[in-house]
Specification:
CATH topology: Rossmann fold
Radius of gyration: 14 Å
CATH architecture: 3-Layer(aba) Sandwich
Strand order of the largest sheet: 1-7-6-2-5-4-3
Number of domains: 1
Order of helices and strands: EHEHEEEEEH
Mean pLDDT: 88
Largest sheet: 7 strands, mixed
């Protein structure tokens, strides 16, 4: 699925829609990769996504902390930003293994910095600057991801 968002609100709304389409019933770890250059809407998307799941606190980019945890109604959201990682080995010091469990959902910005040490994604989103906004592609990478994307698109799959 590919979409063009024209404003920050459009990008947040896409996050909200994707979170709202999340398959229910499974509490297995879910992983979403958010790839794209600086300023292409990854954190804005994450903000809308988390709001849809009930996060009321301020959602900010985890660029300096690298990991931010948010408690949602039925989930722990793990927002990770790997932009400042110098090597994939640094991932071991972030304590992410503790959150690789059921009831957790990971949103990972800059996953390409340590992809060989991350769990595979259910969904992979790629953000690109476009002349009138942000071009966002959503690709399903697992059976859960295909179900998720089908619910978002009304059955198109992915």
């Amino acid at each position: 699925m590919r979409t063009l968002t024209h404003t920050a609100q459009d990008t947040e709304d896409l996050g909200w829609q994707l979170a709202s389409a999340r398959p229910t019933g499974s509490r297995a770890l879910a992983v979403i990769y958010l790839s794209g250059e600086l300023g292409t809407g990854k954190t804005t998307f994450a903000r809308g996504f988390m709001r849809a799941l009930g996060v009321t606190e301020t959602v900010r980019s985890p660029t300096y902390m690298l990991v931010e945890l948010y408690r949602a109604t039925l989930l722990t959201l793990v927002h990770v930003d790997l932009y400042r990682l110098k090597s994939p080995e640094e991932l071991e010091h972030l304590g992410l293994r503790e959150w690789a469990t059921e009831g957790c959902l990971w949103l990972i910005e800059w996953p390409e910095r340590a992809v060989e040490r991350l769990p595979p994604p259910d969904l992979a989103l790629t953000f690109q600057a476009a002349p009138t906004g942000h071009d966002i592609e959503v690709i399903a990478r697992s059976p859960v991801g295909h179900t998720w994307l089908a619910q978002l698109t009304g059955g198109e799959g992915g």
